[in-house]
Specification:
The structure is a single chain. With 177 residues, this protein is α+β, with helices and mostly antiparallel strands. The protein has a single domain, classed as Immunoglobulins (Immunoglobulin-like, Sandwich), CATH 2.60.40. The chain has four helices and nine strands. A hairpin with a 6-residue loop joins strand 5 and strand 6 (105-107). The longest helix is centred in the N-terminal third of the chain and has 14 residues, at 2-15. The protein is elongated, with a radius of gyration of 18 Å. The N and C termini lie far apart (50 Å).
Length: 177
């Protein structure tokens, strides 16, 4: 019986998974601040491609919304953060960098690199307009593998193979004022 259960769960683990583990949003007068992160699990094929030198781009989408009862929510601001992970075979290091930020971090263990890739501690996202006082807001976040950033010959495989469709889906959290 246990063997059947394990056999049923193995295909899920082989596909990899992105999921939000924690999120603590805060609003200040000029920024939306986020603490938390994603658990980023790669499928065997994605991990193999990374090990062969294919750079992977992970996009973290953030939306600040004002919930409304009769209409759809009003989107106040949207951000997309791009993070990259690549493997350097010569040094045996995984290198994680954030687009637009100086420097990169190196790791010898993939799990540590993925933890860093999905973390956003004390992330401050600038608001381009003041928010209404006394109004409730919510933040929606998701992480996804950017298939369009892969080398062109690999894209058809990524689009047609479930193990390459790494997306956490949207998670919404109320933002305390």
């Amino acid at each position: 019986m246990l063997g059947l259960l394990l056999a049923a769960l193995l295909p899920l683990a082989a596909h990899g998974e992105f999921r939000l583990s924690t999120l603590q949003p805060r609003l200040t007068a000029e920024t939306l601040q986020l603490d938390g992160g994603f658990d980023l699990g790669l499928s065997a094929k994605v991990e193999e491609a990374l090990g062969k030198g294919i750079e992977l781009d992970v996009l973290i989408d953030v939306e600040l919304e004002r919930p409304r009862t009769l209409l759809w929510n009003e989107t106040m601001r949207e951000w997309t953060l791009r993070r990259e992970i690549r493997y350097h075979a010569l040094s045996g290091q995984y290198v994680v960098s954030t687009a637009g930020a100086p420097g990169a971090e190196s790791f010898t263990i993939l799990a540590e690199a993925l933890r860093h890739l999905g973390a956003f501690d004390a992330l401050a996202l600038k608001l381009d307009r003041p928010l209404k006082a006394g109004t409730d807001y919510q933040v929606r976040v998701r992480a996804r593998l950017d298939v369009e950033a892969l080398p062109a010959p690999l894209r058809p495989v990524a689009y047609s193979t479930p193990g390459w469709r790494l997306n956490s889906g949207w998670s919404a959290w109320k933002v305390p004022r």
